[in-house]
Amino acid sequence: MESKKKKSVEISKDEKLKIIKWDDFQQELARLSSLSSALNEANHNKSLIQDKLNYHLQLEEESLSRSNKLDEMREKLEARKLVMGNMSMQSKVVQEKSKKQEEQLNSEIRSLLMAGTSLSVASRSLQEANNSLGGERGYVHLRNLQKLLRVRQQFMVSQISLLYPVKLVTGQTREQELDSFSSSSKSGNPSGLKPLDAGSLTISGLHLTVLPFKKMSFFTDKKEVQSSATALGYVAHAVSLIAFYLEIPLRYPLRLGGSRTYICDYAPSVEPTSSDFTSISLPSSSSKPMEFPLFLEGQDTTRSAYAVFLLNKDLEQLLNFIGVESLGPRHVLANLKELLNNILSPEYINT
To answer: Counting beta carbons within 10 angstroms of the beta carbon of residue 100, is it exposed (0 to 12), middle (13 to 18) or buried (19 or more)?
Structure first.
């Protein structure tokens, strides 16, 4: 079996072997040499091509990486362009706002300059006014003029006190001036002194009795009613003259008519009653005034009592103007006497 195998191996080797003759050996050797050189050249070319291929592949990889980088750079550039666009829009908005603020600031600066100019003019005017007040015709001159005016007012009011003297009745036949009301007092009723009853005072010798204005009956003395109406007419005339001399517009104007005098209320808030006279409205130029009689009209005492209340309010207004408090809502003659005494006092000129 082994011999058979050896023979088959030798036969296969013999089949692969090529027998060359000696004459052809040179040619075959040259051919093999050329084939070997061609093979070497082919291998060299192959290596060159392989190197070129590797180089081109490397270049392709580099170009691909560069392309990717370029794409990334383009994306970044687009993002930056977008950011720059947004920033440009914001800068335009900020620029517009800054222009508006600049215009506003310019207008404010102009207004401040105008205000500064006005302030300087006002300051100069004030300085000139201070200089004029400090001069010969300044505050001292004004005080002198005021004293002269008050002296003149005091003289005119003294004529009123002579025309309508208000006196205190101490007995049936004896009268004396109301000295208990201090003329130097500027606080109204002195402490500890009770206001006198209205029936103890007279104006030009007439008593003022408020009772008939609150309660009217068949047995009421008509002479007493007429005397009280005349006294109220005297008081109204005296109040009107004093207000005119002191240049004070009365809150409740008077329509003089002697014993038939009326007082006006421009805006009574409620219908007046004999028991409540505390709600008084301020006068209005657009509303129609209502007139209330300072005398009795028939049996209706409500309107007359309200008129006496308004007259006392005018007296209170005059007292408050010179810095004196009223003696009370039911003391018409006492308030008038207090008003006269305070105006005729020396302190009135120096205040």
So the answer is: exposed
Residue 113: pLDDT band by 50, 70, 90 thresholds?
Answer: very high
User: Helix %, strand %, coil % for the chain, to 5?
Assistant: 65, 5, 30
Q: Considering only CA atoms, which of 203, 168, 195, 182 is closest in space to residue 346? A: 182
Q: What is the pLDDT of residue 140?
A: 74
Q: Of the given ranges (25-39, 143-157, 247-261, 328-342), which has the lowest mean pLDDT?
A: 25-39
Phi and psi, residue 291, nearest 5°: -100, 135
Q: Which amino acid is at 231?
A: A
| Orientation of helix 302-321 relative to helix 222-245, angle to 10° | 30
- What pLDDT is recorded for position 180? 37
Cite the DSSP H helix spans in 209-343: 211-214, 222-245, 302-321, 332-343
Residue 174 CA, chain-centre distance (Å), reads 64
Output the pTM of the full model: 0.53
Report the pLDDT value the prediction gives residue 142, as an integer from 0 to 100: 77
Residue 135 is predicted with a pLDDT of 61
Please tell me what DSSP assigns to residue 200: G
CA of 165: how far to CAs of 138, 202, 211, 314, 330, in Å? Answer: 39, 8, 22, 19, 19
Residue 176, SS3 per DSSP? strand
Of the candidate ranges 16-20, 195-199, 264-268, 337-341, the one whose mean pLDDT is the lowest: 195-199
Q: Cβ neighbours of residue 158 under 8 Å, at least 6 residues apart? A: 344
**Residue 210 CA, distance from chain mean position:** 50
Q: Where are the beta strands (DSSP E) in 148-279?
A: 166-169, 175-177, 201-203, 206-207, 254-255, 262-265
Q: How far apart are CA 176 and CA 185, in angstroms?
A: 20
pLDDT per residue as tens digits for the range 240-255: 999 999 999 999 999 9
Rounded CA-CA distance 197/201 in Å is 7
Element (H, E) at 292: strand 290-293
DSSP character at residue 297: B
